[in-house]
Amino acid sequence: MEHAEKAGLDLVEVSPTAEPPVCKIMDYGKYRYKQSKKLHDAKKSQTVIHVKEIRLRPKTDEHDIQVKIKHIKKFLEKHDKVKISMIFRGREIAFTEIGRKLMDNIKNQLADNSVIDQEPRLEGRSMVMIVSPKK
Predict the structure, then answer these.
(1) Dmax (CA) of the chain
(2) Residue 113 — pLDDT band, cuts 50, 70, 90?
(3) pTM score over 0.70
(4) Which CATH superfamily is domain 51-133 in?
């Protein structure tokens, strides 16, 4: 402790469980500041991926589907994943092949700039497909 006081620094216990305990002479405030800067830089460099959802119905018109595909492409350009949900209401659930054809059509149109994470599959009254941007 005398050496630390002479140097104007702090005596920091590095390994308290070691026999004998290991200590280090350092400027503790500066050390904490550097640690927080490292953590801040690590957070800045990480990318956050959001999952956007587009909802469709089997009776959605062709032009409306094209508009939805444009939105999906915008989301993919922003490096977000997209969950495409086909909602079946009432008796539409009996005609899931119409929804599957529509999903396959969308999948073919997005093939050049996306990767299919999850193929279209029926979950209750909705058919879900997840796409992500190509790297």
Answers:
(1) 85
(2) confident
(3) no
(4) Translation initiation factor 3 (IF-3), C-terminal domain (3.30.110.10)
